[in-house]
Description:
Layout: E1 12-19, E2 24-30, E3 37-43, E4 50-52, E5 58-60, H1 63-74, H2 80-97, E6 101-103, H3 104-118, H4 120-130, H5 136-152
Parallel strand pairs: 4-6
Antiparallel strand pairs: 1-2, 2-3, 4-5
Amino acid sequence: MKCPFCSHPDTRVADSRLMEERNTVRRRRHCPGCGKRFGTLETVEFKMPSITGHDKKRRPFDRRKLHADLTAAVRKCTGQEQIDEIVRLTEYRLYNSGLRDISSTELADMVLKELLEHNTEAAVRFAALHKRFDSTEHFASWLAQAVKTGSKA
């Protein structure tokens, strides 16, 4: 790493500490050129798949948008901890999928699958906002399947 004070091309790591709550590593560095010390924070950068919407535009995955969508959809029928857990699980599954792109429909299905295991009412609210149902019959058949699946959990 280049020194921020004298631009020496190589600095030494004097100390490293893992900060688990933020998933980062704090490093104390020493510059052999000017003798000054400085700190760096190292974080993991995940390469998430892009989300392809119905308009065929690719957008980066936005954790905050998913969290806001879940919060709006599920309102009082699901606790905040459950929403946070669903967002974390979805993010984990997206990262581990190895996919470069995923459609917004597939993403909604992934979230719905998790919601159905926890709260059928929340899943129905989310589906009403994020799935494109052709007709009321299509929605009714999805709902019947969701209730059947939700009652197993």
